Amino acid sequence: METAEGVRAVTDYNGYVRPSRLPHVVTMNNAHSTHFTDMIEPEILLALRGWSTAGLLRHNVVVKDLRVRNVPTNQYPVGTGVGHGNSIFVFEAASMCITHISHVHRRLSDDQLLDLGLIDVALVAVDGAVTMTHAELFKALDHLKPRIIVPMHLISSSAVSHFVQLAQASYPVKYHDSDTIMLASQTLPMRPEVLFLKGR
């Protein structure tokens, strides 16, 4: 993401898939090997982790016109002793809220949904197996009411097809011709839609 004032943020930063331009802020939702790194370039201003073994970890930082906050979730079943091993990160800029609904492995609680608030753009995992089920995902989306839903975590074609089939009951499904998109609050679609970005 890049804001109007030039602040660059990368979510789900893992160190081996690197952006072409160095970000100012990186977030890592959990400590899975493909979702984080300890090798952070020293030029990166902020590296925000979404997990802690010492209890809830809260971020709420502002860099110029970008605010980044997190909603801690527990990606593991209660009683495993893992603790809060995951966060959903929310990026606020230009009167928009963009959230990365990351490796959440079970239904979002009412408190977590309330903490997230209303979302304009939701980046959502649609595998339906490794992360929350499609039914749990659509329940969360019904509550959050994003104007644009961007699918990610496209593990298998069958999972994507199933997601699209279910999504079409409530949302138009569109395909963008680029892997980047420019967004403004004034030009967000009036009706919520699913928007696949072109893969690299």
Distinctive features:
200 residues, single chain, three-stranded parallel sheet, eight-stranded mixed sheet, Metallo-beta-lactamase, Chain A, 3 helices, alpha/beta, globular, 26% strand
| Strands ordered across the widest β-sheet | 4-5-6-7-8-9-11-10
Share in β-strands:
25-35%
Distance separating the two termini: 16 Å
Could you tell me the radius of gyration in angstroms?
A: 16 Å
Give the helix proportion (percent range): 10-25%
Number of domains: 1
CATH topology tier name: Metallo-beta-lactamase, Chain A
The shape is globular
Mean pLDDT over all positions? 90
Instruction: Give the biggest sheet.
Output: 8 strands, mixed
Question: What string, H for helix and E for strand, traces the elements in order?
Answer: EEEEEEEHEHEHEE
CATH class: Alpha Beta
So, the CATH homologous superfamily?
A: Ribonuclease Z/Hydroxyacylglutathione hydrolase-like
Task: Explain briefly what this protein structure is.
The protein has 200 residues and is of the alpha/beta class. The radius of gyration is 16 Å and the shape is globular.
Structure description:
- The structure is a single chain.
- The protein has 200 residues and is an alpha/beta fold.
- The protein has a single domain, classed as 4-Layer Sandwich (Metallo-beta-lactamase, Chain A).
- It is built from 3 helices and 11 strands, in the order E-E-E-E-E-E-E-H-E-H-E-H-E-E.
- It has an 8-stranded mixed sheet with strand order 4-5-6-7-8-9-11-10, covered by helices on one side.
- A hairpin with a 2-residue loop joins strand 6 (86-93) and strand 7 (96-101).
- The mean pLDDT is 90.
